[in-house]
Design a protein that fits this description.
Chain lengths: 295, 354
């Protein structure tokens, strides 16, 4: 590094660290603190961590909330349900996103810019409104059913809304751009002469894809999958608006604990376990990406 | 019979013709160089042979089989890329074995062939290295080994030495020729470096603006260039532009500001034809006193010492500059500002009308 000196370097690293400490670590610690408290009626609706009486300071922490998560099947099922939904959405995003990203990477000049613009266009509208729009499309007398009945393909409306299908559709729709962009990044920097070299050495197009293109875009696949999987696991809006009674996702459970049961300690415990569980795939992928970068 | 036969190949990029009706035949076992400045279409022609560019017109025939419509993976040629294009996610052995695996060769034979190839390019012991762990010269060897591993009928080399430093380039040139002789595969190398083409190839084709301008042995290209472009592109040259004047027993060239310059015997052109006389710098003879016969008076303007010899820059009448190459320490006799005489034997000049 040139010319910024020791102080400059400290400042450069220090500012984002401070930011993360203030807006990520501190709130997380507060959540951890609440997760070991007991629920009470009052404001705030939980017991303080440290109390003071005649005998002095007393630490008041309990793992009862975590014990509840372990004992009640509902939570485990919600975690697994979230994971299953998010994993399926990730796979579908990958299968859909790869060809799209490839097509964008193959396009040249203005065409490429246009395609990239189209991928990012949905971000111009509120996420919430876009999910609501799906309700209008999928509901029994919504656009899609009306159209299918109108052209005579079906007689009665299909159950498209408030089930697994609509949740999965919502997840894939919402998170597809987060898969496409890192894949595009990987594919557009792929050296074209490698593809030609593989063809020159006798590899047919599919073999070129399996042997050269796919392995060299693994970092993009890992990054895109992470960007879809992690937020999709904690997703609340989509299962709440598009899901049905059978949709069990941890984000919705979390919301219910906070706002319907007003049980902040249990809700916090749910959140702490979720963060801990998400850290595993993130750290795993990080390690892989670092190795791939070093190579 | 020729191994490679190109008949009337043409390809445009937009309005410009990259390859403009090229016909070329290359003999089996030849070390053929396609020489030209950047943008002359030589790389496009090479890519047509490999199958990466489809010609708009013409045919490409390899060993009697018309491959014009075949995809790259079905052609009996392999290419060594200018960037080497080694697969970064495979080790050296994996790179060399890639083409063999596509052929469906069994594991044992692949292992034997990979070892053979590593030996051929003197990279034994590097089988497990990744490309990013190799130096530029080592990568070049691996790229060559990979392209040779399938024993193609024709090996295409796109600027094979361009990425190497000067010293390594000179050594590798000799090695490439040695390897070509040992494996007996026909080599077609594309280069913009005339020294490279002349020193390695058994035949050279010079290309300009999508067309072939001259094909011949390296010495024919250098000693008997067919046009001003070739003389100028291949090596250094002193060019005298003028008009032909028929003389007594030999023709001369009338050049403004000079005595009539005698042309090589046998020059058979009409009086008044516009022509150029090309004389290579090493053909010029410098002497302090006027010699008998034709000579040009000049002044030494600078001397560049090259180690094995020197280039003497001269200024003649009307500010015309000339270059003479003197081997060894011969230039030590002269100093800047010396008035001297330049001459050459008339058969060392080449008359050009194109």
């Amino acid at each position: 590094m040139i010319g910024i000196g020791r102080v400059g370097r400290l400042l450069l690293i220090g500012v984002p660290f401070l930011w993360l400490a203030l807006f990520f670590l501190l709130p997380l610690l507060i959540v951890v603190k609440i997760s070991v408290a007991e629920s009470v009626v009052g404001i705030p609706p939980y017991t303080p961590l440290v109390t003071r009486d005649a005998a002095g300071f007393k630490l008041q922490a309990t793992l009862a909330n975590f014990a509840l998560l372990a004992s009640d099947q509902l939570y485990l099922r919600a975690y697994l349900g979230s994971l299953a939904n998010a994993a399926l959405a990730t796979v579908l995003c990958l299968l859909l996103g790869y060809p799209i990203a490839y097509a964008i990477a193959l396009a040249r000049g203005a065409r490429r810019q246009l395609l990239l613009f189209l991928v990012m266009l949905p971000f111009w509208t509120s996420f919430l409104i876009r999910v609501y729009a799906w309700i209008a499309i999928l509901e029994p007398n919504g656009l899609l059913n009306e159209f299918l009945i109108g052209v005579g393909l079906i007689a009665t409306p299909l159950p498209l809304l408030n089930n697994q299908f609509s949740v999965e559709l919502g997840l894939v729709y919402s998170y597809l751009p987060f898969m496409i962009l890192p894949l595009y990044g990987s594919l557009s920097t792929l050296d074209e002469s490698l593809i030609e070299a593989a063809a020159d050495l006798g590899a047919r197009p599919f073999r070129v894809f399996l042997g050269v293109i796919l392995p060299l875009t693994l970092p993009g696949i890992a990054a895109g999958s992470l960007l879809v999987l992690v937020p999709a696991i904690g997703e609340f809006v989509i299962p709440d608006l598009l899901g049905g009674p059978d949709t069990l996702m941890i984000g919705k459970v979390l919301w219910d604990e906070f706002f319907n049961n007003r049980d902040w300690p249990v809700a916090s415990a749910v959140a702490v376990v979720l963060v801990a569980a998400l850290a595993v795939p993130i750290l795993g992928a990080r390690k892989y990406l670092d190795r791939a970068q070093a190579a | 019979m020729a191994l490679l036969e190109i008949v009337g190949a043409a390809k445009h990029f937009g309005a410009t013709a990259a390859v403009d009706g090229v016909s070329l035949s290359i003999d089996r076992g030849a070390f053929f160089a396609l020489l030209g400045p950047s943008g002359c279409g030589k790389t496009t022609l090479l890519r047509m042979i490999a199958g990466f560019e489809a010609p708009e017109k013409g045919r490409i025939v390899i060993d009697g089989v018309d491959v014009t419509a075949l995809p790259p993976y079905a052609r009996p040629v392999n290419m060594m890329f200018q960037s080497y294009a080694l697969f970064p996610h495979m080790d050296v052995a994996g790179n060399i074995a890639f083409g063999l695996r596509r052929e469906g060769m069994d594991r044992q034979r692949i292992a034997v062939r990979v070892d053979e190839m590593l030996g051929l390019v003197q990279m034994t012991g590097y089988a497990r290295r990744r490309p990013h762990e190799l130096s530029g010269g080592q990568r070049q060897r691996v790229a060559l080994a990979r392209a040779l591993a399938k024993m193609p009928k024709l090996l295409l080399l796109d600027e094979p030495l361009a990425a190497l430093d000067r010293k390594l380039r000179a050594e590798t040139r000799i090695e490439l020729v040695g390897i070509q002789e040992r494996v007996g595969i026909t080599f077609l190398v594309v280069t913009h470096d005339q020294e490279e083409a002349l020193s390695m190839a058994s035949r050279v084709a010079v290309m300009k603006e999508g067309r072939l301008v001259q094909i011949g042995s390296p010495s024919e290209i250098y000693e008997r260039p067919s046009s001003r472009f070739v003389t100028d592109f291949v090596g250094e040259v002193n060019l005298f532009e003028g008009e032909l004047a028929a003389g007594f027993n030999c023709s001369t060239l009338a050049v403004a500001g000079f005595e009539p310059i005698p042309l090589p015997p046998g020059t058979d052109l009409l009086h008044g034809t516009a022509a150029a006389l090309a004389v290579r710098p090493e053909k010029l003879v410098l002497s302090p006193a006027p010699p008998a016969g034709f000579a040009i008076a000049a002044m030494v303007s600078s001397i560049s010492y090259l180690g094995g010899g020197s280039i003497v820059h001269l200024v003649a009448s009307q500010g015309r500059t000339l270059k003479a190459y003197l081997p060894g320490a011969a230039a030590a006799r002269f100093a800047r500002g010396d008035a001297i005489w330049v001459h050459w034997s008339s058969e060392d000049g080449v008359v050009l009308t194109e």
